[in-house]
Amino acid sequence: MKPTIKIALDTRRQKESGVYPVKLQIAFQRETKRYSTGISLSKEQFDYVLNPSKYKGMFDAKLKRELHEAQLELNTMLGKANDIAIKLVDFGFAQFDKKFYQKKLSNTDVY
User: What is the three-state SS of 55-101?
Assistant: First the structure.
């Protein structure tokens, strides 16, 4: 059995600036765990990231670029999480955490 993995806006806690943290949310066997993405967005910005065609002309070009970059970063995290979950024979949050937070070794590191 594989987990359900998605990107979610954590509306449980609003920051002083009016935005909410965006989390990578994983549910497995009735347990849900949220992972920080380091990205915070308003409800409208998050909706735009999920469905850009719905908001034509609503945001200025600079903000659209920033939201597009956030979308790419979130998709990368989601892809990494899905890849890890698929490769784990028996999914468990401990094994997932270890793989998800594992630093990639550089080919140029010799020590």
Answer: HCCCCCHHHHHHHHHHHHHHHHHHHHHHHHHHHCCCCCHHHHHHHHC
Q: Which CA distances in Å does 58 have to 22, 90, 105?
A: 21, 45, 42
How distant is the alpha carbon of residue 32 from its chain centre? 14
How far, CA to CA in Å, does 110 sit from each of 104, 105, 106, 107? 14, 10, 9, 8
Q: What is the Rg, in whole angstroms, of the alpha carbon atoms belonging to the chain? A: 16
pTM here is 0.83
d(CA 21, CA 39): 6
The three-class DSSP label of residue 18 is coil
Task: Give the Cα separation of 64 and 54 in Å (integer).
Answer: 13
Those residues whose C-beta lies under 8 Å from the C-beta of residue 2, and which sit 6 or more positions away, are: 28, 85, 86, 91
Q: What tokens were used for 80?
A: 């990494």
Tens of pLDDT, residues 50-100: 888 887 777 888 999 999 999 999 999 999 999 999 999 999 999 999 999
